Amino acid sequence: MCQFDFEETYGELGKNYIHVHHIIPLYQIKSTYQCDPIKDLIPLCPNCHSMIHRRRDTIPVQTLINLINKKKKTHNTI
């Protein structure tokens, strides 16, 4: 989402490190449901993952993407 690269920043320690966000919250998934990693999970850095869950109702991923892009665009024009 934000393109943060852990390996670039932390070297070997950050290699292959990422958080994953469940598109459908775990509390809404029945115990018999088989999670499909491609369809059901989104890789996010820990900061983006925290922002998604910042409010009582999770923020849609696309809303956070739009916010990041808007901030980047504003920052680049200054």
Give a short summary of the structure.
The chain is an alpha+beta fold and 78 residues long.
The number of helical runs is 4
Q: List low-confidence stretches.
A: none
Largest sheet: 2 strands, antiparallel
For the largest beta sheet, what order do the strands appear in spatially? Answer: 1-2
The helix fraction, in percent, is 40-55%
**Strand tally:** 2
**Silhouette:** flat
Task: Please give a handful of descriptors for the protein shown.
single chain; alpha+beta; two-stranded antiparallel sheet; 4 helices; 2 strands; flat
Structure description:
With 78 residues, the protein is an alpha+beta fold. 41% of the residues lie in helices and 10% in strands. It contains four helices and two strands. It has helices spanning 6-10, 37-40, 46-52, 61-76, and strands at 19-22, 41-44. Strands 1-2 form a two-stranded antiparallel ribbon. The radius of gyration is 15 Å and the shape is flat. The protein starts with 5 loop residues before the first helix and ends with a helix. The model has no long low-confidence stretch (mean pLDDT 90).
Secondary structure layout plus pairing:
Blueprint: H1 6-10, E1 19-22, H2 37-40, E2 41-44, H3 46-52, H4 61-76
Antiparallel strand pairs: 1-2
